[in-house]
Every structure is written in structure tokens, then in C-alpha cells.
Amino acid sequence: MSDTNFQLLAVGLYFAAMLGIGYYAYRKTSNLDDYMLAGRDLKPGVAAISAGASDMSGWLLMGLPGAIYLAGLVEGWIAIGLTIGAWLNWKFVAPRLRSYTEISNNSITVPSFLENRFKDSTRVLRIIAGVIILVFFTFYVSSGMVAGGKFFESTFSAPYFWGMVLVSGITLLYTLFGGFLGASLTDVAQGLLMLAALVAVPVVAVISMGGVGEVINNINLADAAANAADPSKELHRTSLLFGGTALGIISACAWGLGYFGQPHIIVRFMALRSPADAKAGRRIGIAWMVLTAVGAIATALIGVAWFHKNPETLEDPETVFLRMSQILFHPFVAGLVLAAVLAAIMSTIASQLIVCSSALVEDLYGIMGRKSSDRTNVILGRIGVLVVAIIAGILALDPSSSILKLVSFAWAGFGAAFGPVIILSLYWKKFTSWGALAAMVSGAITVFIWGTNEALSKTLYEIVPGFVIATIFGVVVSLLTQKHHPVIEREFNEMKRHSAGGTFSA
After folding, report:
1. What is the DSSP string of 232-273?
2. Would you give the DSSP letter of residue 60?
3. What pTM does this model have?
4. 63 closest CA partner among 48, 82, 88
5. Phi, psi dihedral angles at 272 (to 5 degrees)
6. N or C: which terminal CB in the chain sees fewer CB atoms within 10 Å?
7. How far apart are CA 277 and CA 283, in angstroms?
């Protein structure tokens, strides 16, 4: 059997496993709460690893190693910022959001929570939040589909279109029928596969090169050779600070701010069994993040040493993880590593499809006041997934529509539009619906203006001004529109007590 056939066999087994998990979740799904939020019965380990897997996407296995390979540890500030942001999110947002969403009319989506939290009878807050989610995530899903197509095109020389259709189709099937539980359980399998691959590749590579000392020596030799060829580079890839400007480091670390407003991540908090599970979830999730990020960074640095010492060349730095796995392992094992890259892509697509579906069915269709049976609601949820997937697929027909910049732009948009709103909603009793609306709109507009201005976006990542301005607008407008609302105050106090370990009032 050829190397390619071994790799295709491994990828095929991975696809079959994902479909099997989706079928299992389908058998467990009976109503809309099950489909959108797994009946609020997600174990902390499942929530933590699925949140990490749906967040990191192909960036962890391709984008980050590629950046580290080219510039060194200075690019690792993004990983540091993301890890800190994730820890803060689990620590301060998860327990309160889990509690508050149940207290406020059992809200199962971010837009419905905002409406219920502020008792907004106008429904404007919910509609705008739903539209923002739908628009941004449709393009986000599309970029994931493009990544899947390019993966098969570059790895197996398969036509881009059929690679995109295959990855999108498998993901759509297990998401369509398995819903949130299906997406979460497959995320766990995918997250564990990513972890195993990111630990195995650098460990085996270091052993094969003769130890850490040999690796560091060859990295320094590679830097010296690159600096001699082009003195303007001044590479020193083992330094976190060399060549990094203060604004550049702030921009990189600021990616962590995005966590507070990512709907496909914070929805995992809402699905936990109880607020108390957030503590275990935080420990598991951060451990997963640290191990995978260190593995990705180590793989890139070891790759620098490997390709300096050996006569082979690396045409695309973003493929360093893939090339190292193909060099070091048996073709079948390398195929499993390739499956880890697909896992990163597919886990993100699945989570975003579910959020888009909830925005369509629960937040836009639901506000019409129509009452439907559980069976009808689940069918509508599946139709929502299918509609978004079709639109995203059409956008993905052109490989250039991937636009990696759109991913960072969407991350900033969600972080600035929803991040301050979520934090203030959970920690400030006097935060008002008008303040939330002002924060959401001003954050999104600031990101759009700043992010589309090349001079501004190169100076500072747009999430920083967007987050700050949204917070200011939210606070100022709330102070101007405050009024006493006994139900809001009662629910807020109940949330604080319950999230701290108390029980619901009778």
C-alpha cells in the first residue's frame, strides 16, 4: 500500500468515527434545548475540551507554527494572550453566565439571554445580536470550508471543490443530526487527537535530532545563516522580546479579549451541568490549551533546526507541522496527524453552524411569537444549519474567499461587540438595555472602521479600541438611562448567590 493510501485510510477512519459520534448524539436529542444546548448537561471535561477545539481551529496546527517558524517566539504572544483570556473567561464569566442564563427565563442563546437579562420588550437587542452573529459566522464557516478544500488540494492533490465538499459534508451531517451534543462530543475527540499529535511530533523530533541541546544549536545556526544572507532580518527565534514593539505585543496579547464575546465558546458555559463545574472546566481547558500551544510552538522551532540540519526544504512555513509528521512517522500514523488538522477545521465549523442555527431559529424565528412542538423546533434547527451551510458553501466556491484576515476581523468584531456587554451584564446590576445596545453597536462599528483602515490596523489590533470604546459607551449610556427594575435586581442577586455555590430560590 502506498504512503498516500495509508494516509487516506487514516483520514477515512477518522471521518467514520465522527459520523458515529454524530449518530449517537442524534439518538440523545429530542427537543430544542437538547439540540441547541445539550439539555444543560455537559460535563466540565467535555465543555472545556470542546471549547478549546472549536476555538483554536487550523490556526493552532498551521497558522501559529508557521508564524513561529518565520519570526520566532515573538509570535508566541498571541498564544500567551489567548491562554490568559481563556483562563479569565472560565474564572469570571463561566459560573455567572451558567447561572444567569437559567435564572433569566432559561435562555439558551446569547441574544435571548440579553433580552431576558434586561427584560427588553422591544426585542431590538435580541434582533441586532442575532443578525451580528448570523452575518459574521456565515463568513467564518465559509473560511473553514475553504481551509478544508485547500487541505485536500495541498495534501492529496485532490480538486479543491471536492475536498471542500467532503469536509463540509461530513461536518454538516454530524452537526445536522447530532446538534450541540454532537458538535461537543466530536470536538472532544478532535481535541484529544490534536493534543496527541502536538505532543508526539515535537517529542519524537527532539529524540531523532539527538536532544534539546542539538535542537537549540541548529536554531541558532539557522538564525545566523538567515541574518548573514539578509542583515535586515536580525532573527533570534528563541527570544520572546527580540524585535517585538510594545504595540505589537499589546496587539498580540489583546487576542485574549476576544474570548469574552465569542458565542461559540461561551455557549459551552451555558451548557454546563452547574456553575460549580466551571472550576473543573477551567483546569482541564487551560491544561489542554497550554499543552497544545507549547506543542505547536515547539514543533515550529524544532522544524527550524530540522530543515537547517537536513537537506530537505520547506516551501510553505505553515505546513511545518504536516511535513514533520510525514517525515517522522509511518504513513498511517502521519495520516492520523493529518486528521488532527481536519479535526481543528471541522470542530470550529460545527460549533459555528450550531450558533448560526440558534440565531435563525431561536432568536429570529422565535421572536415572531410562534409556538411549535419540540419535534418541529428540532427540525427547524436542522434546517437552519443546512441553510447557513449552503450559503457558506457558495461563498467558499472561490478559494480566495478564505481571507485569513476576515477570521481575525470577525474575532475582533465578536470580542468588541459582545465582550463588554457580557462582562457588564454579569457584574453590574445597573447596566441597562440601552447601555448594552450602545456598547454592542459602538464596538462593532469601531472594529469595522479601525479594521478596514490599513494604517490603523497595522498600528494596533482593532479589538483594543473596539473593546475600550464599547465599554465606555455601555457605562455612560447606562448611567444616563438607569431606572429601578425589581425583577432585574432580584434575578441579579439570585445569580450572584447561585454562581457562588448557593441554590435557586423556591
Report:
1. TT---TT-SSTT--HHHHHHHHGGGGGGGG-HHHHHHHHTBS
2. I
3. 0.85
4. 82
5. -60, 155
6. C
7. 10
